[in-house]
Amino acid sequence: MAEKNNTITRQPVVVIMGHVDHGKSSLLEAIREDFVITSKESGGITQHIGAYEADFQGKRITFIDTPGHEAFSAMRQRGANAADIAILVVDAVEGVKPQTKEALDFIKKAEIPMIVAFNKIDKPGSDPEKVKRELSQMNVLVESYGGQTPSCEVSAKTKQGIKELLETIVLVAEMEQLEADPKSVFRGVIIESALDSKKGPLATLLVLEGVLKEGDLAATDRVMGKLRNLSDFQGTVMKEALPGRPVRVLGFEQPPAVGEECKVFSSKEAALEQLKKIKECPKAPKVRTPEGVETLNIILKTDVLGSCEAILGVLQNIPQDKVVLRFLRVETGDINASDVILAEQAPAKIFGFRVKTDEKTVVLARQREIKIRTFDVIYDLVQEVRKVMTSSLSPEIVRKDLAKLKALIVFKREKGEQIIGCRVLSGEVVRNVKTEIVRDEEVIGIGRIRGLQKDKKEIGKAEKGQEIGILLQSDIMVEENDFLTAFTEEKEKATL
């Protein structure tokens, strides 16, 4: 690290975001396989601690390895911008999706530079240019479109473009001139925490300022402890951790919440002053459900107050245009019979985070047919809430236009049916599909194409340029020079 006065040039911290199934985890895995820093002491075995370091051309890069933008949102909710650079992963086949837009919003609010990674370019049908156009409609212009946002075409599967992506990260980091003062007071942020049955509370800290050392007395807003057993993502023991580095620690009295800031104190008295004496969970805002919008009632029970606040903050960031979340009870403590009874009466869904359910409550829930969902990872809880929200929505009817035809002559008319000579202007028309009837640029009715003929023979389909006869079922009488738009309607799983 280059030193300038008391400051050092620190390694960049990168978060990878994007729509579910667009390859965020696969991309991280591809980077980890080829560019992870290996240690002789650890034997090169990586552990999941919420972050890891890659080594590219002699320069270290920290990747926050938390799933999706839920954890990143929890950090932002507490005012801790842990990342320096965001990579927006977009599937080059599917293009922009709802969570792509959510990720973009998070990145913009965090005010950090972004790199767009067009993933899955090895797949048939990949079209990065189409995705660039979609992004441009959201005011994101990549460099090849005259903008300032760098982009790379990558394949997590074949590893094509991975080196170019890392080169871009290094370049953006150099332009950002990332610096930190190792002699300043330590400041870090919790990026992952857990309760180990043998070791006790585990936490992963990302060092933002100063240096974290073995034996330091540290505190967040709600939990403190003398930190020990500092180690990196490969389990290698660390005596100290410099800015930009992730470090796993033991010693907190209870698991801190993801996103909480952490500081080091000279005495226990000073650390205690840092702790906020909050007696109860934050109250979820009251919501009004617009007419025609579904409501999902939730009972949320968590282990500690910090988790309570973090989860509420993340859940409230889920789009609620179609389904509104209403929190009937938000408390710390184990799930009990009172929660089950309320869930039955409301009705409501019970979600627990790092809490238990006693045997009597389990039996009661089974009798009342109430499902209790408990989780140890915020991301998993949030994804399940999303799933329940989506399942309450009716499937969306999606129309797909197949062909456009022009009526040339009407051969026969009977009640509810007509035989019409048409020319296929575009696309491909098949039998048993719906069609709009357009006259003078206005839709005047709907019909169904029951049959197709060419040279008095039945055919299965007709393409652009062909002149055919169609058997149209409709109460609307078609006239010469009317236009017909053949289309299908399919049910698709609703999205939030």
What tags apply to this protein structure?
Elongation Factor Tu (Ef-tu), domain 3, single chain, 496 residues, Rossmann fold, 29 strands, alpha+beta, six-stranded mixed β-sheet, 4 domains, six-stranded antiparallel β-barrel
In short:
The protein has 496 residues and is of the alpha+beta class. The protein folds into 4 domains: 3-179, 3-Layer(aba) Sandwich (Rossmann fold); 187-274, Beta Barrel (Elongation Factor Tu (Ef-tu), domain 3); 294-391, Rossmann fold; 396-492, Elongation Factor Tu (Ef-tu), domain 3 (Beta Barrel).
Description:
- The chain is of the alpha+beta class and about 500 residues long.
- The protein has helices at about 25-35, 70-75, 100-110, 130-135, 160-175, 270-275, 305-315, 335-345, 360-365, 380-390; strands at about 5, 5-10, 15-20, 50-55, 60-65, 85-90, 115-120, 150-155, 180, 185-195, 200-210, 210-215, 215-220, 225-230, 240, 245-250, 260-265, 295-300, 325-330, 350-355, 370-375, 395-415, 415-430, 435-440, 440-455, 455-460, 460-465, 465-475, 485-490.
- Strand 24 and strand 25 (about 440-455) form a beta hairpin.
- About 40% of the residues are buried.
- The model is unreliable at about 40-45 (pLDDT under 50).
